[in-house]
Amino acid sequence: MDSIVVFSPASVANVTCGFDVLGFCLDHVGDKIIVSKSNTPGVHIASVSGFRVPVNPKQNVASVAVEALLRDYPTSTGFEIEIEKGIKPGSGLGSSAASACGAVFAVNLLLGSPFSRRDLIKYALEGESLASGERHADNLAPVILGGFTLVRSIDEIDIIELPSPEDLIVSVVHPKIELKTSYARAILKKEVLLRDAVRQWANVGALVSALYTQDYRLLSRSLQDFVIEPTRSMLIPEFDALKHEAISSGALGFGISGSGPAVFALSQGQKTAQSVLQSMSKALDPLDLDFDCYISSINQQGVRVI
Amino acid sequence: MDSIVVFSPASVANVTCGFDVLGFCLDHVGDKIIVSKSNTPGVHIASVSGFRVPVNPKQNVASVAVEALLRDYPTSTGFEIEIEKGIKPGSGLGSSAASACGAVFAVNLLLGSPFSRRDLIKYALEGESLASGERHADNLAPVILGGFTLVRSIDEIDIIELPSPEDLIVSVVHPKIELKTSYARAILKKEVLLRDAVRQWANVGALVSALYTQDYRLLSRSLQDFVIEPTRSMLIPEFDALKHEAISSGALGFGISGSGPAVFALSQGQKTAQSVLQSMSKALDPLDLDFDCYISSINQQGVRVI
After folding, report:
1. Which of B151, B208, B227 sits opposite A209 (nearest CB)?
2. In which region does residue A275 sit, left (phi positive, over 0), alpha (psi from -120 to 50) or beta (all else)?
3. Per-residue pLDDT at B266 exceeds 80
4. Which residues does chain B have within 8 Å of residue A208's beta carbon, measured at their own beta carbons?
5. Where is A211: in which H helix or E strand?
6. SS3 annotation, A11-29
7. Searching chain B, which residue's CA lies closest to the CA of residue A19?
8. How confident is the model at residue A131 (pLDDT cuts 50, 70, 90)?
9. Nearest by Cα to A85 from A24, A144, A9
10. What is d(CA B270, CA B265) in angstroms, rounded to the nearest whole number?
């Protein structure tokens, strides 16, 4: 096998109460990554389309991630990476995570799978940290492993695969303004009130419990963010209206996807998720602003060969 | 039925990573509460033994809790409460929670059970908040419901009963110095680093997952406290030695029980728990300090009639 094409999906990180630790994988939206073996040693970006990302392999998250992998598995083979970006950078939908995960997943297959899916998270993290300026794996873990994940630690990488009910459906609205992850992170306060932190970890624990027991009402009650949303919501056009529309149309919960500006809602069943999506779109209609809308179940598979 | 005797057990709150939200119920150690109907209206403390607690019904957590219940269920019947304290106040083992829970549990039975166990938490909370100066239910919930509990919210009381494996055994060492809950709370910083809060809620989520999946290794990794232990451990004699001894004897995790000075370790199986307890005792041996030791499984029943 000299060439491989993979689909590396978008993802929603943080999931309202779980800043930097929770995430789930989306379907349909994602990057297409084509990796080909080459006689020229090293890793090269052969092409980029869809959205602009760096073609310099030292600055591209995909090639940086692959280079990290190759340091642990040296080879004389070179690799050429073609990236068809389906996820806009700075959208809050794990654009850099998708590229980094797709590239290491493809290269691992071309090498005969010396690494497990879990192993690959470490290498993708090298690429991702280039994009955000900090190391975090809350987008990477669901893209590599699929489903709903909890990153317990990245010092020693420790990822927990959580169950997620099949009829939990995601509605995403992505207002097309660019929001740099590094900026969305820089505005956060370095300290939080202990009282708010306690409410936040109570909700994280409750959300994990709700996923195991498929308790939708508990899931709904736990989708609250006392720590990050008050600051970051200011960066998102019509945040309050979007939230109000989602909840009053029957969504179980609502939140900023990653660092935004995309927002998401979780609903039980396709029908509710559709009506939630329509209501959220309505909230943005008065603005002179382009936006995308998606409906997705939680993608249990993650990055895959196509 | 004119009189009832209940056993209201001790409990471990916080459980290392879950400050103010996690707790579990112990066995064997607890308060014995005898409540008798009386022709004299109102709630009276007839006797107190074992350890000293206020006999003034306006200052006693048990009678304050019962009075809260009776405001929602007015009756001309009076109640006399006898309290045999088996849990030292200020031990960190839920002494006030046991008295408050035992009293409302007994009175509810004498009234023909107008309230469910869950309902009683609200009334016990009125008593408990008298003792700690703040409202928190992380000791009350496991005493009333048994087992391992998560308090998601006390604004609107929202308690989750978590599963706990049968062979999870608790070793408790209680150095007999008194530590006022209100003081142990006052020394805490009002703000915490966001970075530490994130690690803490990752661990809370991981611990909840570990309880559902009976993953002892994950349970062990998640029993870390980055927020409270650094401050409160200074109040506990030989804290570092106790922790070192517990972990090196095979405990899955270790922490301060509630606000201390009692400490606890969780182990898989009686045998390990016994050896952990012996090692912890050894750490206190050089001190001229009296201490108690207990071994307990997690009490699934909670407060009960005896």
Report:
1. B208
2. alpha
3. yes
4. 205, 208-209, 212
5. helix A194-213
6. EEECCCCCCCCEEEEEEEE
7. B198
8. low
9. A9
10. 12
Task: With a cut of 80, say whether residue A133 has pLDDT above it.
Answer: no
Higher pLDDT, residue A19 or A178: A19
Specify the DSSP class assigned to residue A306.
Answer: -
Ramachandran region of residue B275, left (φ > 0), alpha (ψ -120 to 50) or beta? alpha
- Angle, helix B117-132 to helix B95-110, in steps of 10 degrees: 140
Residues in chain B: 306
B46, B62 contact by CB (below 8 A)? no
pTM metric for this prediction: 0.96
Pick from A233, A231, A234, A213: which is nearest to A222 by CA? A213
Please give, rounded to a whole number of angstroms, the shortest distance from the CA of B172 to a CA of chain A.
25
Q: Is A183 on the interface with B (CB under 8 A)?
A: no
* DSSP string for residues in B67-123: HHHHHHS--S-EEEEEEE--S-TTSSS-HHHHHHHHHHHHHHHHTT--S-HHHHHHH
A212 touches chain B (CB under 8 A): yes
Show residues of chain A in contact with B203, CB under 8 Å: 152
ipTM of this predicted complex? 0.95
Among A254, A278, A257, A277, residue whose Cα is nearest residue A266: A254
Does residue A281 contact residue A206 with C-beta atoms inside 8 Å?
no
Q: What's the confidence (pLDDT) of residue A285?
A: 87
CA B292 – CA B8 distance, rounded (Å): 19
Task: Tell me which residue has tokens 């182990």.
Answer: B267
Strand B191-193 and strand B148-153: pairing?
Answer: unpaired
- What is the rounded distance in angstroms from the CA atom of residue B48 to the CA atom of residue B62? 11
Angle between helix B194-213 and A194-213 (nearest 10): 30
Query: What residue has token string 């709903």?
Result: A148
pLDDT tier, A132 (very low <50, low <70, confident <90, very high otherwise): low
